[in-house]
């Protein structure tokens, strides 16, 4: 790499110091942060850069090279590295992260030339300053503006480690030619594709399989992995020279109409993705049209065999459906138990026994609510606000006629895992019921807040308050013993119940939340 990093160009505000090393704030700045702080690029420019870096692994892999995106500083006094990508197909040049590094004008001549002349620069001999030969190229990043002049947003520095250079194979030559075409598209503002759907995390990558098509949609090169994928689809003929759209449609022949996306993707006419299935094999296709100089010169089609992945996804869907069915049946069984307890309570003539059974009905009911919610949830996570509101409503319905109070919720619980939802619902039920039965308040509120990965829940009322000398540790109340066991045992949380200064009682429980 020609030139050295400036020791004089320092940006204290971002904590970025140049001189061959980069220092960062405690929070590593994102691309958006760096663009907002140090450049004059606008929102549309930033969106374009986000689209570019979301898909430039493709360019890095085809180039066998590291990519660094440099943006001009305010006033164009220098450059700042705002993104970086390493290849998965070859050795890297940069073993350290250089995002946030600043270079003054003149220190990176190829970057300056690409920016000033608006062209790809490939001049210069390999640089040996790092101990290995590195070939550098620079690509101006252009954003086409409809009805206006194009905007140049920065420069991509493409650095290739030449330490393992050898006579290139047909695969490597195809990769490099495709990389050259993509680089030209970046310089012309044709890549990334405008309006394209976001690239999926599991989209095919270069190493999964690659086909190169000519402008007529015929295969001019097929990588070994791509050829193997088509063999598994049932192809026995040679793929090179064949019209990919016609071959793919024939392999997937059925009585159903041909998927329109299939023909578009397999012919490379549009930047899209699709899947084809034949003989139990599922292959994902992604087309990248190559448009250089205003004309379509061909396309790349990335291929990935996703048969095993889809099989696992189907298994997970089956397991999820089974788990939801189990929750549904548990809910039904709990409701049956609650109904039996309710019938038994009505037959009892002893008030204490009837009251004990009614409390058991409420406890079983709160658990049933959680399982009912889980039976409709796609995963083992639930929106606890819905559960809390039903528990609160249930507590108000069974309160004595003299109280006639519906508790109120302030704040949001959010989405919680079922391991937390069930004991928390039971604890909330007990606290509400205890307040309504013994405090006879006029107001009863549940206040929720999340602070530093802890869920804090406060249940307060303006009722009669706690008996004199009350101690939670020595309380004989079954309900409070249940709450304490749930909060401290199952939820690993803290529970306090104290008199409220304004009158009444306040119960505070705090539980740790699992990391996202």
TrEMBL record:
A GO MF label: ATP binding
Entry annotated with the keyword Phosphoprotein: yes
Keywords: ATP-binding, Kinase, Nucleotide-binding, Phosphoprotein, Transferase
Reactions catalysed according to its record: ATP + protein L-histidine = ADP + protein N-phospho-L-histidine
Transmembrane segments: none
InterPro entries, sorted: H_kinase_PdtaS_GAF_sf, HATPase_C_sf, HATPase_dom, His_kinase_dom, PAS-like_dom_sf, PAS_4, PdtaS_GAF, Sig_transdc_His_kin_sub2_dim/P
Keyword Lipoprotein: no
Broad EC category: transferase
EC numbers, comma separated: 2.7.13.3
Domain Histidine kinase: 325-515
Protein name: histidine kinase
Organism: Nonomuraea maritima
Lineage of the species this protein comes from: Bacteria, Bacillati, Actinomycetota, Actinomycetes, Streptosporangiales
């Amino acid at each position: 790499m020609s030139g050295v990093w400036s020791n004089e160009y320092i940006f204290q505000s971002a904590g970025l110091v140049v001189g061959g090393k980069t220092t960062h704030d405690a929070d590593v700045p994102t691309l958006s942060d760096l663009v907002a702080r140090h450049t004059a690029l606008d929102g549309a420019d930033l969106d374009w850069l986000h689209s570019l870096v979301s898909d430039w692994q493709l360019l890095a892999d085809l180039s066998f090279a590291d990519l660094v995106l440099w943006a001009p500083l305010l006033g164009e006094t220098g450059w700042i590295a705002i993104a970086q990508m390493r290849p998965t197909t070859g050795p890297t040049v940069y073993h350290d992260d250089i995002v946030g590094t600043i270079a003054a004008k003149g220190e990176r001549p190829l970057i300056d030339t690409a920016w000033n002349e608006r062209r790809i620069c490939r001049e210069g001999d390999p640089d040996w300053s790092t101990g290995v030969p590195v070939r550098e190229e620079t690509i101006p990043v252009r954003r086409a503006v409809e009805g206006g002049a194009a905007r140049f947003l920065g420069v991509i520095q493409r650095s290739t480690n030449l330490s393992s250079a050898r006579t290139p194979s047909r695969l490597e030559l195809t990769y490099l030619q495709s990389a050259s075409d993509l680089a030209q598209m970046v310089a012309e503002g044709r890549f990334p594709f405008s309006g394209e759907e976001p690239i999926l995390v599991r989209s095919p990558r270069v190493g999964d399989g690659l086909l190169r098509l000519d402008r007529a949609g015929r295969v001019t090169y097929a990588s070994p992995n791509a050829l193997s994928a088509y063999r598994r689809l049932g192809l026995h003929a040679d793929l090179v020279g064949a019209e990919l759209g016609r071959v793919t449609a024939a392999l997937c022949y059925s009585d159903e109409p041909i998927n329109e996306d299939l023909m578009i993707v397999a012919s490379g006419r549009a930047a899209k993705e699709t899947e084809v299935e034949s003989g139990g094999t599922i292959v994902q296709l992604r087309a990248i049209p190559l448009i250089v100089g205003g004309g379509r010169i061909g396309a790349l089609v990335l291929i990935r065999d996703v048969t095993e992945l889809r099989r696992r996804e189907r298994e997970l869907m089956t397991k999820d459906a089974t788990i939801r069915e189990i929750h549904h049946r548990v809910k039904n069984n709990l409701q049956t138990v609650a109904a039996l307890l309710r019938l038994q309570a009505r037959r009892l003539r002893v008030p204490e026994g009837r009251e004990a059974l009614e409390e058991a009905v409420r406890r079983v009911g709160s658990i049933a609510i959680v399982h009912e919610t889980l039976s409709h949830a796609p995963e083992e996570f639930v929106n606890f606000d819905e559960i809390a509101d039903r528990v609160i409503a249930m507590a108000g319905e069974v309160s004595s006629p003299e109280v006639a109070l519906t508790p109120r919720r302030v704040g949001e619980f959010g989405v919680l895992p079922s391991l937390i939802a069930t004991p928390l619902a039971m604890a909330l039920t007990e606290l509400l019921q205890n307040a309504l039965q013994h405090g006879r308040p006029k107001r009863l509120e549940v206040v929720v807040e999340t602070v530093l990965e802890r869920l804090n829940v406060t249940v307060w009322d303006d009722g009669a308050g706690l008996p004199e000398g009350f101690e939670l540790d020595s309380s004989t109340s079954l309900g409070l013993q249940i709450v304490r066991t749930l909060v401290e045992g199952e939820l690993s949380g803290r529970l306090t119940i104290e008199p409220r200064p304004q009158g009444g009682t306040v119960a505070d429980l705090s539980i740790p939340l699992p990391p996202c």
